[in-house]
């Protein structure tokens, strides 16, 4: 099945089973804005807990913060967002559709990569175990030709981004023959910059209102509270401040479901270090964050680091953690060495000293910062993408979300075999006992087979069936989602069996 078809099925599945809905759907929706349903909000909260506890519980020198969405407008001048928070946009004159010029070129690079990978895959199938991929890539004429095209395009693209050369970006699009996906034409406008911040007004009257912005990132809330946290928490460098919160960007080219939205949620940690040590910490946090992703068990080969083509104005090093979505490798987390740019800027614009006195060095300085920033919504989409499976069984096909049990919205479904003979009451007793520890669901509608399929589709890792034997010996049948195996266990042991599988402690042990 084509990857595009898989993605469409995934989006439909999210709606059908209460994970994600189009916002304002009864009014025909609002573009690039989504709501999380009853299952989605549970998964989202579990992802946030996994991140928060891995940051704050597992690191003695990382603490939390919850800053406001509305902030003083000068903050965004100091941070560079007013002047530099732009996307290079280009319009197709025939389709009247707008695109990000850099994304069009990145997609072209991905096409060259795909051509090379297809050649490698065909050769690997042909030669079997004796296949030497490295030698093939270095000698095959078709691979070498596409590699040369990739290298040339990559160099031009990188230079254009770093020089902020909008005319060159358009020239690359024209030279590569990149067409509009809608019209199929190459009738492009010039590339121009577009600021992504939403603005609004604050004040009791229209005349006295002042222009403020909805925050486009959560990081600045941490920076302007740096001294408050450091002093009240008696924090010693190195230390970090973690925050989860909403951010807003007026994405003109919002696409790929919840991958790129106008209202989204970020999980960010800013780590304050001594000047000169930032690149060492940058490498440490790269390793730490990649471990966090891989611990979920979605396959190490589906993750990679991607070095930035162009560094942001505040950074001296930057890398993305990318995951292989159905639409290709895309960013789920950014790790940046932000230098002392943000704190120095706020010191200058506010007129307040934002320094740290280092007792070991006997001097004061503006700390440098290493940032880890992950989108909750992208992480949500990654988890769903990695978990969605269609399995062909003997008699039918089952759709199953093989979510890591610790993240699954519902941990346990309890099902009476029939709706009589005291079995529903027995099932309710089990739920009343376990509901304080696990999110449980009672399910008595339809045949037991249909109920299993329904729970598979929402990703419930354990199904417990209460039958007539349960009333006699206090045992039940527990069914495991991924293997569909069943075993007879004592009701008294259910808490321990499930608890071991859904424990964050087990997940943290891999970190």
TrEMBL record:
Protein's recorded name: Glycine--tRNA ligase
Subcellular location(s) of the protein: Cytoplasm
Quaternary structure and interacting proteins, as annotated: Homodimer.
Gene Ontology MF annotations: ATP binding; bis(5'-nucleosyl)-tetraphosphatase (asymmetrical) activity; glycine-tRNA ligase activity
Protein's GO biological process: diadenosine tetraphosphate biosynthetic process; glycyl-tRNA aminoacylation
Span of domain Aminoacyl-transfer RNA synthetases class-II family profile: 197-409
Annotated substrate binding sites: 100, 217, 264-268, 371-375
Keyword Zinc-finger in record: no
GO annotation, cellular component aspect: cytoplasm; extracellular exosome; microvesicle
Keyword NADP: no
Originating gene: glyQS
Organism: Draconibacterium sediminis
